[in-house]
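Summary for the steering committee. The consortium agreed at its last meeting that each partner would contribute one worked example illustrating the joint modelling workflow. Our contribution is presented below. We chose a case with several input lines so that the handling of multiple components could be demonstrated. No manual editing was applied between input and output; the record is shown as generated.
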Amino acid sequence: MDPDAVAKAFVDHYYSTFDANRAGLGNLYQEGSMLTFEGQKIQGSQSIVAKLTSLPFQQCKHNITTVDCQPSGAGGMLVFVSGTLQLAGEQHALKFSQMFHLMPTPQGSFYVLNDIFRLNYT
Amino acid sequence: MDPDAVAKAFVDHYYSTFDANRAGLGNLYQEGSMLTFEGQKIQGSQSIVAKLTSLPFQQCKHNITTVDCQPSGAGGVLVFVSGTLQLSGEQHALKFSQMFHLMPTPQGSFYVLNDIFRLNYA
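What follows is the complete predicted structure of the assembly.
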């Protein structure tokens, strides 16, 4: 498993899914998954998808600036992302940082065990 | 183990040590520890401390804005920090984001297994 390749593939898939159809993110999380979104703690795939699909915008576009990754031990992968988030109708893009802890599935894929998202205010 | 308490104690200790005496960070890392500093990958306590003590400034002060944490599985804690970094002599503070993956030691403390640091450019 090449961590950099896994991280790149995951980041591409995650943000393109987020931008096209946030409800489609459900299969990237499991029951024990945790999301902290701007300080709010949410657990479990269902609640996480409910939170993401209820965010107050219709359309958005993530532009990724940096992706760093490291193996976390026990076959897991840490991915640290920074970029901008353009909301439809807003003049200025928001800056954000996000970290994911990916764990392998028996089928040879990865799911998100830990997810922490923060906007970077200027 | 209360992740929030561990995270807060660690963040206080890490940045006060960094700001007072970067060489003192050595006992927070072990041989298998990994640091990615602005995209540069470094492994092992010795190399990590060498990198941090060679950063091109004498004095600095970290001001922490947000700290988020989650249990990572296998007794570990993920800590996601954002804040500003004021270098002595510089007019404007730099913004940064950093994530740590802390693992327990047999003595009941924690060490840094994974560390990723990125400046957030305006």
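DSSP finds two helices and six strands in chain A. The interface with chain B takes residues 34, 36, 39, 41, 66, 68, 70-74, 76, 78, 80, 82, 95, 97, 99, 101, 103, 113-114, 116, 118, 120, 122 of chain A (CB under 8 Å).
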